[in-house]
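Support reply, case 0932

Customer input (verbatim):
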Amino acid sequence: MVRREVQIDPAVAAILGEGERRQEERSLPRAERRQRVRDRSRTKLTVDLPEGVIEEIREVAEAENVGVSSLVHWLLVEGLREYREVDRLKKEAARSLKFSYNVVVEGAGDGDA
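Our regenerated output:
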């Protein structure tokens, strides 16, 4: 007798996976369930920063008694606001196949940002 492999539509598999995830979360403590909900609503971005900039961000966050993520969020929003008002960046030619320019950041720690 020949056994047929059952093919599941990707949409159906996604729905089943969602149900399994919900079932698993029901067994977690309330605080951990809430944390997972918060984490799902976040969008994460990884960026390369010079070590000097990272150290300065940590120092400011500690001095202000705020989280690093909330400080970086505020710094980015303020930087974007200023960019919209000034609408110019100092740029230099990049040594990259993907990008034509790098932004020049004066006094920004060590290395390229």
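We compared this against your earlier run and they match. Two observations from our side: The chain has two domains: 10-41, 51-103. The chain has a mean pLDDT of 84. Please reopen the case if you see a mismatch on your end.
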